[in-house]
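Bench notes, afternoon.
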Amino acid sequence: MAEVLQLETWDLECEHNNLDHRTSEAGCQQLIVRRGQSFIVTLHFAGRPYDEAVDKLTFNVETGPCPIETSGTRSSFPLTCSLEETTWSSAVEGQDGSSVTMFIFSPPDARIGRYHLTMEASTEGQGSSYDLGEFILLFNPWCPDDSVFMESEEARVEYVLTQHGHIYQGSKDYIYSIPWNFGQFEEGIVDICLQLLDTNPKFLRNQDKDCSRRNSPVYVSRVVSAMVNCNDDQGILFGRWDNQYDDGVSPMAWAGSVDILQRWQKFGCQPVRYGQCWVFAAVACSVLRALGIPSRVVTNYNSAHDTNGNLIIEQYLDQNGKLQQGNRELIWNYHCWVESWMGRPDLPEGYDGWQVLDPTPQEKSEGVYCCGPSPVKAVKEGDLQLKYDVRFVFAEVNADVAYLMLQSDMSRRKTTYATVVGKNISTKSVGRDTKEDITHHYKYQEDSEEERAVFEKAQLQKSPPPAEEGLKVKIKASEGMDNGCDFDVFALLTNNTPEEHRCRLMFGARTISYNGALGPECGSKDLLNVILEPYAEKTVPLRLLYENYGHCLTQDNMIKVMALLMDHDTQEIVVGVRNIYVKNPDIKVRILGEPMQKRKMVAELTLTNPLPVPLSGCVFTMEGAGLTDGQKIQELESPIGPGEEAKARVDFAPRQSGLRKLVVDFESDNLKGVKGYRNVIIAPLPK
């Protein structure tokens, strides 16, 4: 009778496997692999070597608290001479004396999550069981049979592996970006993302059913969309839009997802205060990339929030043409969501590819504050009946805007403002720090036959384009609209008719939050008798003074300028609207020292105070994936006077080599949410 086979030691080959599965940025302390791709395990036996003729090795993999074979959360498979590529399997790769190197293969539709690996070794009916440890299994965009497969290697690197990026803000007329540290492979982040899945209400209600559905990126991404906000669950972020952030962190102050995710875990899954749309979207993007689903943050300018589903955003004006507070339906100056790449086997053919996921809590979907995945193709084609939430996303990029002005007899006079919603839909370009306009993914060209067909399919009436003739109002901005300065905005009035028109011009400016919520007035003009000559233009300036806007400017730095021109004879109303961005100063970032892995370097951070008042409580915060091991915070002791420089030097020692992004935020009492960044190429340690 053969001696019973005894396993002495084993090695999950974390360093080799993580590098092969493109997860090495998360470190080599635990095995993190992608489904549909084999990984290596080495077994060292004591006494005698493994003999396939007499020894039988069987492996078991289990995920979730109640693993069941019929649910796809448990599998048992023998060691053989070749791998099967549709199911869990293992095969000998090589044998050297008492050591056996073998492959374990996971099917491309395996459930993602944390797995337990055990082995049963038997020799002629006698044997032992061994606990080989744990590994994490992720989605695999490199595997052609995985439903998240992407063909382009450049795109896979950008949307799965890249840990930094840019998020677009501002207005459709002044688009700017803020840098963001997604940090999906920073220490502990993958574990936090798995904990997030295990905290979701569907898991708590039925653990077996939830874990069994984690093979589907459609299911997992919808869970993430719900769990990034805390409205129905123990989600990550608490949303707030009222500029009252003293009991938390202002949404403008975040520069990355890592600190947010770590805080959520550290404080027992209590929501982190506070988030707004780009923070919700960026954190969701980090979680989805960490789980292996290709994702990117997208910004839609002039984004409609349609609460009643009629695809018309109604804005109410008083008798003096001023927007009234309390409009529930708003035009967000910009709104950020996530696009994730996946197949849609749950839908008719043709809707694979980019899907909209919106974790910002706006409206409920199937009773929960989440949105998506909604196929971008379905939005473009007007297929509003498809799941999930296509109608809501369609409204965000296509709704009409109607202004209803109160008349002296208390009736409302309606004017429709054409071509406002869904402009300059933007995301970061692949492999570069530049913007890509993807509006054409969501909409056909204005007034094209295809666009008309889409609106017909959606059973909607699209407002006709404005006539060439008649009165027109356009808002123009001046150069140098810098925070701390006085500047002009202009109403450009055009009369495209052969008659003279006598009009009233109501021209005003109010501070505004990026989501459309109005603040105080900071400048106005009411000209009762404006004469417009036939086929003539007239420019009317409005001076905006820092002393009027500075104290009521929100951290979004936005001012809404609106001009209403009313013809005295016909009572016709023409509207011009523009949201302008008041520019903050730049942060200059200098790198001192040789940029090399694990070698001390210094970042010199400088900002010039542009305001006519001092800045107190000045704080620089710096972070970067693979660079800083969390946030580096530098507080300045003295106030910074007008025109003076705020300066700090921050030490750091890069953990990883390669192209990295150092992201910087500046906060003070009177100047908040200022962002800067510097790309740094870190040389590897000499061998």
